[in-house]
């Protein structure tokens, strides 16, 4: 059974930094075959894609409002992903979800339960 578990959320003042982690377990396929993504869902809003890192090339992509502030990484040996968030803004507040989607097999898509990030003074 595949599990994704996020950690690292919390309360932070504007301008601060947080590092979110996503631990995975139970993946039968190689971890490198998965696209790792982080989504954010703010209160009353739809879940939105924040950042992704793609397969063996580790190509990254970001939502416009986090470019230059967030960095997504993956550790193949530990089968984890991380989202380093800097220069946090109030509008970064939300529940952050880790997602692993297989790069070639449709329907192979896993989610964590989320970790709450609150940015407030």
Task: Furnish the topology, listing elements before pairings.
Blueprint lengths: L2 E5 L2 E3 L5 E8 L8 E8 L6 E7 L4 E4 L7 E6 L4 E6 L8 E9 L6 E3 L3 E5 L2
Parallel strand pairs: 2-11
Antiparallel strand pairs: 1-3, 3-8, 4-5, 4-9, 5-6, 7-8, 9-10, 9-11
- What value does the Rg take, in angstroms? 14 Å
Strand content: over 45%
Quaternary structure:
single chain
Q: Sketch the major β-sheet.
A: 7 strands, mixed
Count every helix, treating DSSP H or I runs of 4 or more residues as helices: 0
By secondary-structure content and strand pairing, the structural class works out as mainly beta
Number of strands: 11
**Which H/E pattern describes the elements?**
EEEEEEEEEEE
Query: Could you give the distance between the termini?
Result: 40 Å
Question: Helical amount among residues, as a percent range?
Answer: under 10%
Q: Estimate the mean pLDDT confidence.
A: 94
The backbone outline, from C-alpha atoms, is globular
**Poorly predicted runs of 5 or more residues:** none
Brief sketch in words of this structure:
This protein is mostly beta strands and 121 residues long. It has strands spanning 3-7, 10-12, 18-25, 34-41, 48-54, 59-62, 70-75, 80-85, 94-102, 109-111, 115-119.
């Amino acid at each position: 059974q595949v599990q994704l578990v996020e950690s690292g959320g919390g309360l932070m003042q504007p301008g601060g930094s947080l590092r979110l982690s996503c631990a995975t377990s139970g993946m039968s396929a190689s971890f490198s075959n998965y696209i790792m993504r982080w989504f954010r869902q703010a209160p009353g809003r739809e879940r939105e894609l924040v950042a992704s890192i793609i397969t063996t090339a580790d190509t990254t992509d970001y939502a416009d409002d986090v470019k230059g502030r967030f960095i997504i990484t993956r550790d193949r040996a530990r089968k984890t992903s991380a989202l380093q968030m800097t220069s946090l803004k109030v509008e970064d507040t939300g529940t952050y979800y880790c997602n692993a989607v297989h790069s070639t097999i449709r329907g192979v898509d896993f989610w964590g339960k989320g970790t709450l990030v609150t940015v407030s003074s």
